[in-house]
Task: structure prediction
Amino acid sequence: MLSIKGLKVKLEEEDKQILKGVDLEVEAGKVHAIMGPNGSGKSTLSYVLSGKDGYEVTEGSATLEGEDLLDMEPEERAAAGLFLAFQYPVEIPGVGNMTFLRTAVNAQRKARGEEEMSAGDFLKVIRAKAKDLKIDADMLKRPVNMGFSGGEKKRNEILQMAMLEPKMCVLDETDSGLDVDAMKLVAEGVNALRTEGRGFLVITHYQRLLDHIKPDVVHIMADGRIVKTGGPELALEVENNGYAGILSEVA
Amino acid sequence: MTAMQATTSETDDLIAQHRIEAEGWSRTAREDALARATAMGLPQRRDEYWKYTRPDSLTAAEPVAAALLKSDEAPLFDGMDRLKLVFVDGVFDADASDDLSQEGLEIELLSRAEGDLHWARDLYGTLEARGQKPVERPLAAVNTAFAKEGVLIRVTGKVSRPVNLIYRRNSDSSDVMLHYCVKVEKDAEVTVLENGPAAARLNTVMEVDVADHGHFHHVRAQGRDHERRAATHVFARLGEESFFKSFTVTVNGALTRNECVIELTGDDANAHVAGACVGDGDFHHDDTVFITHDAVNCESRQVFKKVLRNGAVGVFQGKILVKDGAQKTDGYQISQSLLLDEDSQFLAKPELEIYADDVACSHGSTSGAIDEDALFYLRARGVEKHVATDLLTLAFLAEAVEEIAAEELRDAINDRLASWLERHRG
Result:
């Protein structure tokens, strides 16, 4: 599904290497988790994959089902099936949440040569999905993420994911700023989307999210590289010993 | 030649060009206005309120020629139930207009009005004259003195159909002055719409006198007309618990100066004036607003948004004056520009002058580019860059457009703005 090979990335503005050769394969139907200390490059990886400005790929490749992601505009990556759940969802005054979602859904359908969803159908689908995530009608009407609590913003991300039905979901620190109940709700939303055809890359600082979204594979990232890969037990090791223990072990 | 001599001779030129012999019921008002205009002289670059906008092309004897724009777009407000008054190059077109009799409304053309319209005699030139202090507005006085056509409207009840002033032009050098008087009687309510290309050079004055509990709504679209120049004035006086709303959308136009002068004279009155403009290239747009609070517990809002690209220039000069005793005044003023490139310019001069001690007045002015984070967020969800940019631009304009009370009108204006954005993608 997602294949990253020898990816090296530096900041455009300053000569600072962030990713120093990342190799990663996420298969369809699998959940991979990336854990790592602050500043290890986890979020940069998610931004580079989704096409945010400000980063320069100096070496390596990233493909989605064989298609070169790095050569595409952000909207083309989305239409190709990549979805990034933002660590900090952006507030957009003046753009209604519903309008935004419908524009996004239909833009992707159009890009893929599919028929646009009618207003009626869209309404039916979104109401059902919003209900599962305990998103009320008021949140759908309000401008995108405006006045949303931290938990509401993250649930709104998962709602977008549910509506857009991507092939590959990248979740960037989706647990940050969430209390236990909100995290459970978000995790349930994610788990409901786990299917054989869909891959997940869950980026997180803490192990607790992985209690709710059970990963198949866990990677530890440090200083711009993946330094250790293992099963779910690796996350528990981080929980018990901290990153320091693992890093000294691989060093 | 001294500057003073230059002023006098320019005034003379413009006057010679437009001079009509004042007669009939408006004679005194016109003669007084001419005396005002002559005493003030025409606007000069050095005048405090003309620093950011060159008045030359508005004050020259002859207008600059303005090419006619062919558009296949249906005129705005088409299909709406309204009372149509059509002016072609400033001349009333009776065949294209509706029958002027309407319930709750007395309506007469300026050129046809007889002497028995006492209310019109009392209003014509009165609010314009009041609005000359403390800031002079000579072009408005020239209009009062010389306007050949216009409409006198007295509203005595709740008028359901809007009055639509529709402009068309066939000449590339028409130089038009139109003068409107609107008297909204107690408890009466009316909506006045304006749209279409009026003239190569347009000078309008609208005097609006709203009695206690009266409502006046004004929605104006200054036409798709790239090369035209316009100076417009709205003068309003508001009685107790009255309501005044004026919104203007401007898409292109070489030069636009929209002045709005409002006096809140009755307690608990409301005045909202708003504008959304979008300019690409040869575009200079100036909103100059002066709101005077002279009564207790009144609210005023000024909401102006400008989208500028390719060297377009936006100007905002907005003032709130709260007189001694105008307690519980709630004044709000915001002017913002969205600069779509680095060549465009926004000049803002917000002013507050407050002589009462129990008031809440706020103002803000910003200039900025499209929010890159918001743009990326939309694109990351699959929305194409140009669509996302348009969406964010319309969102930027939304606060001004939302000042229009009627949803149908709001939607019509939003459609216009959206189609402009589509035509002007960078």
